[in-house]
Write a structure and sequence with these properties.
single chain; 369 residues; alpha+beta; 4-stranded mixed beta sheet
Length: 369
């Protein structure tokens, strides 16, 4: 989310506003102004802001439920299509995932009930209830919160209903298999949305694409995690690397970078200990700033976490997600640097394993005539 602006930090979770959300507000204001004048435009923008305040509360429902189980949430990003909460890890215990998934829609139901208590206007799911400017903003907001709760409970990734469905399936089958089943159901729902969008509301086509890609990504992620359970770090780490010393000059490192297809340079001291990581981006920034005489220790990323080569790939994936570093160092029993492990090489090794397993499947028998 490189185009997002932090607008506040609450309980250790940063709330970010994506630049496209601001463009969305401008578009809403322009549409309402063209249809009914400036007063309607202001009302439309205020309604959208109120809706996204409810979306933030929805996401914090997830955050608080996850925190109850020891899962931290780094940030929440507001997009025109809703909010995205980035958790440090996905809980694989079905009860935990079920509670976390349902906490968001539960917040919307509570908001709808509170607003109903204020207005005594029964919330509706019809689009007319959202757009009727003859109805007060609070009453419309109550109907929208009811819609958000119901919509998010559709059993399709990446919505809350898809995660709740996976949690329920995990009570009866393995996590990866439950994910595959839930993803298939979600993709089926995406096809239904796409068909309805072609014959009716074009917005459903966009939602269908969002749901289909979200389900595919979730299924792939679950498959990778399943493969990672049986692998150790030495199976996937990169060892053919050119390390640099802390006092290496950027000019000299650039010469090495030109001749090697290497994106990260481990900074290793004279005792073979990993001091930090020098990224391709950091080198280019230093060159752009004219810091060619700087040393690797001046611009490296320090405090890179390390693992022993016999630890599980699960541990490596967890560190990469929690620490948000481009790579994790791998050391031997004496703490000497051996290699790096990154999301990229984990993904490559996992893909090779998947393709290798497929190639070993027996050919399909021809149908009998």
């Amino acid at each position: 989310m490189t185009w997002s602006i932090p607008i506040g930090r609450f309980g250790g979770t940063t709330v970010r506003l994506h630049i496209t959300f601001l463009l969305f507000l401008v578009w809403i204001g322009a549409v309402y102004a063209a249809r009914a004048g400036m007063r309607a435009a202001i009302d439309g923008v205020v309604l959208v802001l109120a809706v996204f305040a409810c979306v933030v509360l929805h996401e914090f429902g997830h955050v608080l439920a996850a925190r109850h189980y020891g899962v931290q949430t780094r940030d929440i990003t507001l997009l025109p299509i809703g909010g995205v909460a980035r958790m440090a890890r996905i809980p694989e215990q079905p009860t935990q995932e079920l509670v976390i998934a349902l906490a968001g829609p539960a917040v919307n139901l509570v908001i709808a009930a509170i607003l109903y208590g204020i207005t005594r206007s029964v919330p509706h799911l019809s689009g007319a209830a959202f757009q009727d400017q003859g109805v007060g903003l609070v009453a419309r907001l109550s109907s929208i919160n009811l819609f958000l709760a119901v919509f998010n409970l559709i059993p399709a990734f990446p919505m809350d209903g898809g995660r709740a469905l996976r949690a329920l399936l995990t009570y009866r089958m393995a996590y990866a298999q439950a994910t595959q089943v839930a993803a298939s159901i979600g993709q089926g729902i995406a096809f239904v949305f796409g068909f309805l969008g072609l014959v009716g509301n074009p917005l459903l086509v966009f939602i269908a694409l969002f749901v289909y890609l979200g389900a595919a990504a979730e299924a792939q992620g679950a498959l990778f995690r399943q493969l990672a359970h049986g692998m150790i770090v030495s199976d996937v780490m990169t060892t053919h690397l050119q390390p640099v010393s802390p006092d290496s000059r950027i000019d000299d490192i650039v010469v090495t970078m030109v001749h090697l297809p290497q994106r990260e340079f481990p900074v290793v001291d004279g005792q073979g200990k990993l001091c930090g990581l020098l990224t391709h981006a950091a080198i280019l920034r230093a060159m752009h700033a004219g810091q060619t005489d700087a040393m690797a220790a001046d611009i490296m990323m320090p405090d890179i976490p390390t693992l022993h080569s016999y630890q599980s790939v699960d541990d490596a994936m967890r560190l990469l997600e929690e620490r948000q570093v481009p790579a994790v160092g791998v050391c031997d029993g004496q703490g000497r640097f051996m290699g790096l492990i990154s999301q990229t090489n984990i993904g490559e090794i996992m893909t090779i394993h998947i393709l290798r397993d497929k190639s070993r499947l027996p050919p399909a028998r021809p149908a009998l005539r």
